[in-house]
Sequence to fold (153 residues):
Amino acid sequence: MSDFKKIDRVGSTKNIIKDVFGVELDISGGWGYNASTSISINSLSMPLEQFLNLFTTIRANIEMNLSLEKDKRYAGIKVTIKNRSKIEVDDITYDVIETQIKAMKEDIYSKFIKEYKEKYGQEGFDLNEYFNRREENTTTRVVEFWFNTLEYN
Fold:
């Protein structure tokens, strides 16, 4: 999606995550857009699945919220891992995680949340219709994350 730009490498990915999100991950490398910016996991302090969910959610939030002007930001960002594959580039094997990212423009999301809080449980509030409208207003992206290795269990 053209609205979203790759995160520039302006410093240590590890330090940016710690400074912005208060989370310490023992990683090195880039943001995982391709082989040359792949992420290296040096050690894990949590299960691999939890790490993957956390890292992919962090990058999605930077791309879709923090790096955008206020009127272009997204909220309700949800990342789902869809596929894992191994890809070899220059005799190096990478683990590529394909994710689906769903989100809604921040101002629209706020209106949906407000409507839900005000009307849930009231007569005449059609929950199916509400969630159908939410889905119609949701942006879906399919995004890859490249890792040097996922040899952790």
